[in-house]
Design brief:
Layout (H helix, E strand, L loop, with lengths): L1 H33 L12 E8 L5 E3 L8 E4 L4 E5 L4 E9 L2 E9 L7 H12 L5 E4 L2 E5 L5 E7 L8 E8 L5 E2 L8 E4 L4 E5 L4 E9 L3 E4 L3 E2 L6 H16 E6 L4 E5 L4 E7 L2
Antiparallel strand pairs: 1-2, 1-3, 1-9, 3-4, 4-5, 5-6, 7-8, 8-9, 10-11, 10-12, 10-19, 12-13, 13-14, 14-15, 14-16, 17-18, 18-19
Length: about 270
């Protein structure tokens, strides 16, 4: 009987020691899980629509309604393009994890008024101050102190928000050709209906609208006025001329073809890398 009493008396002590061991093991597992930080999103190849911006006082202001909501597209080659809601711009960006810098470049000079002008001023002031970001279904651009500057929603799927590099340009003689100058031609279709890119020498901007399954209208092209080698300028001029004639498009995961009313291809693209 005395041995049985001793065994019963020792049972609570064993339970206490077992509970302590379990607590320590669980704590170690939890600490290991907490230390595994998620990888930063890769911005290359993504497109976004502006949803809000911080005004001069730091207050969050809702973006103007489409088609003046603004956009931002990141290419894999370090180029960035977008719209303020009034004017289109291009530039460059560098990403290192969640660190991000944006250097705005050339911009169109359309006159703006009212809320979209205020939005443009805030956006142009904010972009050079971007220091980091967070991204999931929403892209939030932050300054060096962590304050929110701009917020964007993911652009919808389709032609909108896509970026392309030319593989063939109609030379104006009913032939689509490719040479050393072709790859300098790019096209980025913003979520706000803005088409931007490079003609190989000059950056350009235009508007575009789509309807049905394949109809597209591209507005007049405005471009910078640099001069380059004759071959580059010939390709650029052929491309700009072709854009004015485009009425339909064919798109899949690997290519985009812009055609005129007769069905002739004016430009053929591959996804930007």
């Amino acid at each position: 009987m005395s041995n049985r009493l001793l065994a019963l008396a020792a049972l609570p002590l064993l339970l206490i020691l077992s509970a302590c061991g379990s607590s320590t093991s669980s704590g170690d597992a939890g600490a290991g899980s907490a230390s595994a930080a998620p990888a930063a999103a890769d911005l290359a190849g993504t497109s976004w629509t502006l949803t809000s911006y911080a005004d001069a006082s730091g207050a969050e202001v809702s973006a103007t309604a489409a088609p003046q909501s603004g956009s931002l597209t990141f290419s894999a080659d370090g180029a960035v393009a977008g719209s303020t809601g009034c004017n289109s711009f291009t530039g460059t960006y560098e990403q290192d994890g969640t660190a991000l810098t944006i250097v705005p470049g050339p911009m169109t000079l359309r006159a703006c008024a009212g809320p979209v002008a205020e939005q443009e001023a805030a956006l142009l002031a904010a972009l050079p101050n971007v220091a980091s970001f967070t991204a999931d279904s929403t892209l939030v651009l932050l300054d060096a102190s962590g304050a929110q500057l701009l917020a964007y929603a993911a652009a919808p799927a389709g032609l909108s928000g896509t970026s392309w590099t030319a593989t063939g340009i109609n030379n104006g003689k009913e032939a689509v050709v490719s040479d050393a100058t072709t790859g300098g031609v790019t096209a980025m279709f913003g979520a706000d209906g803005t088409l931007t890119g490079s003609g190989g020498c000059n950056t350009y901007t235009a508007t575009y609208t789509t309807s049905g399954s394949d109809a597209i209208t591209i507005g007049p092209v405005a471009s910078t006025r640099m001069m380059c080698e004759d071959a580059v300028m010939a390709t650029e001029q052929a491309y700009f001329t072709g854009l004015a004639a485009v009425t339909t498009y064919e798109q899949d995961a690997n290519s985009l073809t812009l055609r005129d009313a007769s069905g002739a291809a004016q430009a053929v693209f591959a996804p930007a890398q």
